[in-house]
Amino acid sequence: MSEAIQISTEFPDPYAVPLDKFELWNGALYEQDKHWAFFERLRKEAPVHYTAESPAGPFWSVTKYQDIMSVDTHHEIYSSEGSITIDDQDPEFTIPMFIAMDPPKHDVQRMTVSPVVAPANLALLEGTIRERVIRILESLPRDEPFNWVQHVSIELTTQMLATLFDFPWEDRHLLTYWSDLATADLNSGLFETEDEQRAELLKCLEYFTRLWNERVNEPGGNDLISMLAHGESTRNMDPMEYLGNLVLLIVGGNDTTRNSISGGVLALNQNPAEYDKLRKNPSLIGNMVPEIIRWQSPVAHMARTALEDTELGGKPIKKGERVAMWYISGNRDEDKIPNANQFMIDRPNARHHLSFGFGIHRCLGNRLGEMQLRVIWEELMKRYPKIDVVGDPKFLKSSFIHGIRELPVRIPG
Question: How far apart (Å, rounded) are the C-alpha atoms in residues 146 and 285?
Fold first, then answer.
């Protein structure tokens, strides 16, 4: 990290700061929930904006819906190879994963695990998800505060991950821990040094290698580990590539759904008229789910590297330059999404959001995530027509995962 770069802990009015001083890479901006106005100004004044200095080097920020779509759907110009975030990368501890690969390797590895979220398998999973949702909801305390993230969002998504991996049930909490660890930085409090983070991720690899070795000699199963162990394009992966794909599948199956489950409760409390609308008409749940995912934008950005000199939004992008697609901004672009700063559970065309990405890297588990959200709200409305948020949410300190760490709630008795 460059010593010359000052990292802010407080953020003034973005209209009083020069554009070249914007710290979009600074996790504290998102932890304090102050990023919205910075992106609003960029969409108005510099939709494709160059940041000359950051801890991870220079990069372009793309903040408008159509420009983000252009980057996301042109993998032949904007490469995913190597890294998909603007965070500082550790050259001594690289973990390849198929989301950070280009075709053809990306395509065959993605295809290996895609059967786990095929429509037929999702239909089989729905009953299991509903049973677990009911069990979780009916165990919640009444008329006393508790952390919704810990009791509901984390528990449901962790159980789902354990099922997809056929992971030992009694150790399922490790999946949440490894997910948080993989996306955290030194300011997270999860570890004190990068060496400690590496050591913990290697423990993840050790655990999963044991499961791989158990399943590689068994007939192919329907779990993700068996699919990787038997897949023609993945069965000879080196250990770090196996770890990389595990991290991808764990984070993809955990953080996005977890934060949308929490974000939906927060959004409805912040917009009581929409909550009233939902109580009067629970059939709106199906449309509300993609609106929650747009509103939360659980993945704040993805990054690419230009493979050639090109132009975007009137700005020259040079070969080798990094480009960040800010989904969290594009999902509030009023030129594409009318009244984008309003949370509307009956929004027309609610699925037209950027949260799952587009093109060859579109989120593999998007239908599974939507199904979990739909089921939880269907069962919630049968039992608890009102979940009251009783304190301020605590957001994740990250420019990559737009997450909620704590959401204090109370279910009226």
Answer: 24
pLDDT digits (tens, 9 = 90+) for 12-39: 899 999 999 999 999 999 999 999 999 9
Q: Which amino acid is at 320?
A: G
Roughly how many angstroms between the first and final C-alpha of the chain, as a whole number?
Answer: 51
CATH of region 14-410: 1.10.630.10
For the chain, the C-alpha Rg in angstroms (whole number) is 21
- E-assigned strand segments in 250-407: 301-306, 310-312, 315-317, 322-326, 388-389, 394-395, 404-406
Locate the DSSP E strands across 293-368: 301-306, 310-312, 315-317, 322-326
User: Whole-model pTM?
Assistant: 0.92
Which H or E element spans position 409?
strand 408-410
Distance CA 333, CA 64 (A): 6
Question: What backbone phi and psi angles, to 5 degrees, belong to 374?
Answer: -60, -45
> Which residue, 251, 256, 258, is CA-closest to 201?
251
